């Protein structure tokens, strides 16, 4: 019955329905059909749905409806206090949510602002001082503005945590708790997540009051409109196979995932050398560079966008046909979030994974999480040779770059960008005013950046060549 419901039947205002119609939508997705009436009723919500099924509109539309009664055209900042706070883990996701709020609220006199790290704080500060009813923010940059005393939550009625599981993965729990302590006790709280882990349930218990639990798909499942293919390949043949697949299928848009920012930059360069237009996007890119790369990819000016997992949450690309895992993620849940960039809004998508021998354990973990076997397809000329046992040294040489000490008994975790993984450490007010870009947002303490810089000066191992046997053995 949910599929027969229309937006008109959900009780949304005429202005919001007009904005929805302008975007060409008439029928809500499953998560929207279940969440919107509950949120309109003022209940707390704990909701989970497959990535790409409309979670953002699921809370944006009813939030706008609930705030429509206080919308006004006054020029006085006092008439535009923060009524709703939406927290997201990454810059890309914050920008996406901001665009959604503006798109569906274009016929309402509600002011919205997005604040996130990697850009100058001063324009954001001015927006906050001018008054804003709906604030979209990443945790680190939000706390910078709180420290500057330019944000007041005394009138906040609604709190939304989007991609809550990712925020916990990135170490933002202390920041979230600090923000929660500043909010009124009487409020509506909404928690949206791609997956329901035990940690998420614990957070929900502390955040939500008698919530309505909405789970429109089985835990840790993926969109059924996405087909999955695995190609087993030798490490030194991965690049050739990737180029072969892109050119054979004449792909005009392929989102390619690797583990590290070094790998992203190198792979994009190698693809460009083989006449495939490619750009890289990762944590070392500033916001302007990332935005330009995304726009070029969306406009079809770039055939391949090579990304780290920092980009997995928040990328919204219409009708993206292919996601390619050049390297499997160390965490199985990240596989779900990676491939969730394709097969969105009912369109078909394809997820291709290039798997070498040392990644088979990662593949097994992914299949265990999904409770399904992914289809294995051999590509003539690129069939992996597993007849010769590989030594521990060979496995280490072909694995993703990492720093280690001692003996590893399980697959190593990929090195992650500290800018997205370190808990927030408040910067001083003076530092924020002197250099607002460096002091705010989601960036770590200077000692973390110094440590990362020292790590990056170490020689990088060869990423795309077969390992050479140790001559001493």
Structure characterization notes:
It is a single chain. This protein is an alpha/beta fold and 473 residues long. The chain folds into two domains: 2-215, P-loop containing nucleotide triphosphate hydrolases (Rossmann fold), CATH 3.40.50.300; 226-376, P-loop containing nucleotide triphosphate hydrolases (Rossmann fold, 3-Layer(aba) Sandwich), CATH 3.40.50.300. The chain is built from 19 helices and 14 strands. It has a seven-stranded parallel sheet with strand order 3-4-2-5-6-1-7, sandwiched between helices. Strands 10-11-9-12-13-8-14 form a seven-stranded parallel sheet, with helices on both faces. Strand 12, helix 13 and strand 13 (349-355) form a beta-alpha-beta unit. Helix 2 (30-40) runs parallel beside helix 3 (55-67) and helix 3 crosses helix 4 (91-104). Residues 388-415, 427-441 and 443-462 have low confidence and may be disordered. Pfam families: DEAD (PF00270), Helicase_C (PF00271). One of its GO terms (biological process) is ribosome assembly.
Radius of gyration: 23 Å
Predict the CATH topology of the largest domain: Rossmann fold
**Counted beta strands:** 14
Strand order of the largest sheet: 3-4-2-5-6-1-7
The CATH superfamily label of the largest domain reads: P-loop containing nucleotide triphosphate hydrolases
Q: Assembly state here?
A: single chain
Uncertain segments are: 388-415, 427-441, 443-462
Q: Counting H and I runs of at least 4 residues, what is the number of helices?
A: 19
End-to-end distance = 68 Å
Q: How much helix is in the residues?
A: 25-40%
Q: Biggest β-sheet: count, sense, barrel?
A: 7 strands, parallel
Given this structure, which CATH class of the largest domain is correct? Alpha Beta
Structural class: alpha/beta
From the spread of the alpha carbons, the general shape counts as globular
Q: Name the average pLDDT.
A: 81
Architecture per CATH nomenclature, i.e. the level-2 architecture of the largest domain: 3-Layer(aba) Sandwich
Beta-strand content: 5-15%
């Amino acid at each position: 019955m949910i599929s027969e419901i229309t937006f008109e039947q959900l009780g949304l205002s005429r202005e919001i329905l007009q904005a929805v119609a302008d975007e060409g939508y008439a029928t809500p997705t499953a998560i929207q059909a279940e969440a919107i009436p509950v949120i309109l009723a003022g209940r707390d919500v704990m909701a989970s749905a497959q990535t790409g099924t409309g979670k953002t509109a699921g809370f944006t539309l009813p939030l706008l409806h609930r705030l429509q009664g206080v919308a006004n055209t006054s020029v006085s900042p006092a008439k535009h206090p923060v009524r709703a706070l939406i927290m997201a883990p990454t810059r890309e996701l914050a920008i996406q949510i901001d665009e959604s709020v503006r798109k569906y609220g274009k016929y309402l006199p509600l002011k919205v602002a997005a604040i996130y790290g990697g850009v100058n704080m001063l324009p954001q500060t001015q927006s906050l001082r001018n008054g804003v009813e709906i604030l979209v923010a990443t945790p680190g940059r939000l706390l910078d503005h709180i420290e500057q005393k330019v944000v007041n939550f005394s009138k906040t009625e609604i709190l939304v945590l989007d991609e809550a599981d990712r925020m916990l993965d990135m170490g933002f729990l202390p920041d979230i708790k600090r923000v929660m302590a500043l909010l009124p006790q009487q409020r509506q709280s909404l928690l949206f997540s791609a997956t329901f882990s035990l940690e998420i349930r614990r957070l929900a218990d502390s955040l939500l009051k008698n919530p309505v639990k909405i789970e429109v798909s089985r835990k840790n499942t993926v969109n059924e409109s996405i087909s999955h293919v695995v190609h087993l390949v030798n490490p030194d043949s991965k690049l050739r196979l990737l180029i072969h697949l892109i050119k054979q299928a004449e792909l005009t848009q392929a989102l390619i995932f690797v583990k590290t920012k070094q790998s992203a930059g190198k792979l994009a360069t190698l693809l460009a050398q083989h006449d495939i237009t490619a750009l890289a996007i990762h944590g070392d890119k500033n916001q302007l560079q990332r935005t330009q790369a995304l726009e070029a990819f969306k406009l079809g000016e770039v055939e391949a966008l090579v990304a780290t997992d920092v980009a997995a949450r928040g990328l919204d690309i219409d009708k993206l046909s292919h996601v390619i895992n050049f390297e499997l993620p160390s965490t199985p849940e990240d596989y779900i979030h990676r491939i969730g960039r394709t097969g969105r809004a009912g369109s078909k998508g394809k997820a291709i994974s290039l798997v070498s021998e040392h990644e088979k354990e990662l593949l097994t973990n992914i299949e265990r999480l999904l409770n399904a076997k992914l289809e294995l397809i051999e590509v003539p000329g690129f069939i992996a040779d597993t007849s010769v046992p590989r030594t521990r040294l060979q496995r280490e040489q072909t694995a993703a770059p990492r720093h280690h000490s001692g003996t590893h008994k399980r697959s190593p975790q990929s090195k992650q960008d500290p800018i997205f993984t370190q808990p927030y450490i408040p910067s001083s007010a003076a530092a924020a005013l002197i250099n607002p870009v460096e002091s705010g947002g989601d960036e770590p303490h200077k000692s973390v950046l110094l440590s990362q810089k020292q790590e990056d000066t170490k020689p990088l191992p060869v990423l795309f060549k077969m390992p050479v046997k140790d001559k001493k053995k």
